[in-house]
């Protein structure tokens, strides 16, 4: 499916972004993506596989960042070939845009980089779908400027993702008004249910999280009108190399999707 068809499909029907935070190994990526593919078929929902080849924004310099762009894209390409799932992954530098767009259907702009004009323009010029995560430091209405930067570069395929706002130290809160505010810009609004329960730097050398609240916030976001839900899922979150405390256990993923699908049906009725 090309990016234009995927974008059209995701503007008309609810969708899910899911996968481990970071690529830990080829074997884990393939086994997890096979489960996600099976769940996509069972639920009938479009699921875009997400995993990062490099987590450039980590609490500690000693934290695991990923396999890097070359090996990471090789693994993501294999996931795509084997499962047929669309791929989304982060870029951090304008120079990465074209290379990543050869594999990924959606280029994701990390929250801390959502105002970086050169990065947004380079991503836009690939013609891929661009998913911009709202900075924890921005109001939802401020994201219209990010959308316009992508559109001015000739790309109308833009999504915005809410991931919570900074609230004091080591905590985030979600203002669900952001969902209708951001859809008001004429773009799909996605809710990041797992990063929204993150406790940034909350464990000193790494971030903490409260994964028990992921289902609650995901259900609320769908009721508020979110077009998509983003969830980092992992077969063993307690031993994940990145963002384990806020990742949803893979065995809880399908039941939650059943609930979200039912709420979407009510909202769309």
UniProtKB/TrEMBL annotation:
<comment type="pathway">
    <text>Bacterial outer membrane biogenesis; lipopolysaccharide biosynthesis.</text>
</comment>
<dbReference type="GO" id="GO:0008676">
    <property type="term" value="F:3-deoxy-8-phosphooctulonate synthase activity"/>
</dbReference>
<feature type="domain" description="DAHP synthetase I/KDSA">
    <location>
        <begin position="12"/>
        <end position="260"/>
    </location>
</feature>
<dbReference type="InterPro" id="IPR013785">
    <property type="entry name" value="Aldolase_TIM"/>
</dbReference>
<dbReference type="GO" id="GO:0019294">
    <property type="term" value="P:keto-3-deoxy-D-manno-octulosonic acid biosynthetic process"/>
</dbReference>
<dbReference type="InterPro" id="IPR006269">
    <property type="entry name" value="KDO8P_synthase"/>
</dbReference>
<comment type="similarity">
    <text>Belongs to the KdsA family.</text>
</comment>
<keyword id="KW-0448">Lipopolysaccharide biosynthesis</keyword>
<dbReference type="InterPro" id="IPR006218">
    <property type="entry name" value="DAHP1/KDSA"/>
</dbReference>
<protein>
    <recommendedName>
        <fullName>2-dehydro-3-deoxyphosphooctonate aldolase</fullName>
        <ecNumber>2.5.1.55</ecNumber>
    </recommendedName>
</protein>
<keyword id="KW-0963">Cytoplasm</keyword>
<keyword id="KW-0808">Transferase</keyword>
<comment type="pathway">
    <text>Carbohydrate biosynthesis; 3-deoxy-D-manno-octulosonate biosynthesis; 3-deoxy-D-manno-octulosonate from D-ribulose 5-phosphate: step 2/3.</text>
</comment>
<dbReference type="GO" id="GO:0005737">
    <property type="term" value="C:cytoplasm"/>
</dbReference>
<dbReference type="Pfam" id="PF00793">
    <property type="entry name" value="DAHP_synth_1"/>
</dbReference>
């Amino acid at each position: 499916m090309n990016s234009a068809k995927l974008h059209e499909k995701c503007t008309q029907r609810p969708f899910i972004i899911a996968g481990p935070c970071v690529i830990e190994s080829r074997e884990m990526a393939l086994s997890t993506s096979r489960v996600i593919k099976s769940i996509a078929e069972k639920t009938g929902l479009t699921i875009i596989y997400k995993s990062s080849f490099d987590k450039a924004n980590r609490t500690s310099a000693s934290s695991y960042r990923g396999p890097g762009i070359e090996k990471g894209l090789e693994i993501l390409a294999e996931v795509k070939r084997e499962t047929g799932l669309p791929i989304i992954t982060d870029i951090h530098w304008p120079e990465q845009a074209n290379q990543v767009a050869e594999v990924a259907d959606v280029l994701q702009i990390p929250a801390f980089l959502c105002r970086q004009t050169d990065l947004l323009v380079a991503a836009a010029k690939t013609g891929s779908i661009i998913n911009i995560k709202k900075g924890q430091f921005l109001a939802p209405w401020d994201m219209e400027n990010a959308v316009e930067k992508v559109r001015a570069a000739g790309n109308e395929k833009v999504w915005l993702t809410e991931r919570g706002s900074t609230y004091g130290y080591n905590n985030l809160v979600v203002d669900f008004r952001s969902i209708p505010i951001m859809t008001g810009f004429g773009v799909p609004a996605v809710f990041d249910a797992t990063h929204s329960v993150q406790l940034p730097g909350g464990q000193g050398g790494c971030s903490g999280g409260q994964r028990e609240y992921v289902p609650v916030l995901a259900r609320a976001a769908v009721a508020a009108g979110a077009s998509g839900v983003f969830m980092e899922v992992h077969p063993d979150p307690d031993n994940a190399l990145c963002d384990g405390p806020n990742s949803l256990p893979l065995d809880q993923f399908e039941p939650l999707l059943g609930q979200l699908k039912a709420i979407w049906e009510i909202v769309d009725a």
